[in-house]
Amino acid sequence: MLFKWNENMPRKLDNQSTSELMQRFENLQEDATPLWGKMNPTQMLAHCTAALKMAFGEIPAKIIFSPWKASVARLLFIEWFPFPKDSPTTAEMDTNKKLKPTGSFTEEREALFFQLNRMNNAPNDFNFGMHPLFRKLNREQWGKVVYKHLDHHLRQFGV
Q1: Model pTM score
Q2: CA 78 to CA 156: how far, in whole Å?
Q3: What pairs with residue 135 in β-bridges?
Q4: Rg value, the chain, Cα
Q5: CA-based, 20 to 30 A from 45: which of 103, 117, 137, 147?
Q6: Alpha-carbon gap, residue 159 to 149, rounded angstroms
């Protein structure tokens, strides 16, 4: 195998990993320069919040992959590979297209914290919305995707 999940990375979203993510977001500076990509920190926070809202079905996902491709993508990107730098995103979560931050840096961070706590506290049998690539995910799978996605963007800003 070329790459396997970083063994130190949490394999689920729980109280400990949620607290760790929130602490890292507290360390994010409003004027930080990204190591890759085009978003500034405020836009990144809005993007991450939108992703969590998509998990709850509040932002409809435009399904990109067939069921077969989605099952392969789930295996590769939820279990094995990191999220690629500069990967495209859906228009609904793209701050250069449909998504515009509505608050200040601090307000966007608080909105993200609200959604992150909401995800962490969601019951195991919650009926989540569809993911554009991975399609139907359960609580555990959404937790892995959320952790990897947020970690990806924190690393984007060196946090």
Answers
A1: 0.86
A2: 19
A3: 131
A4: 15
A5: 137
A6: 13
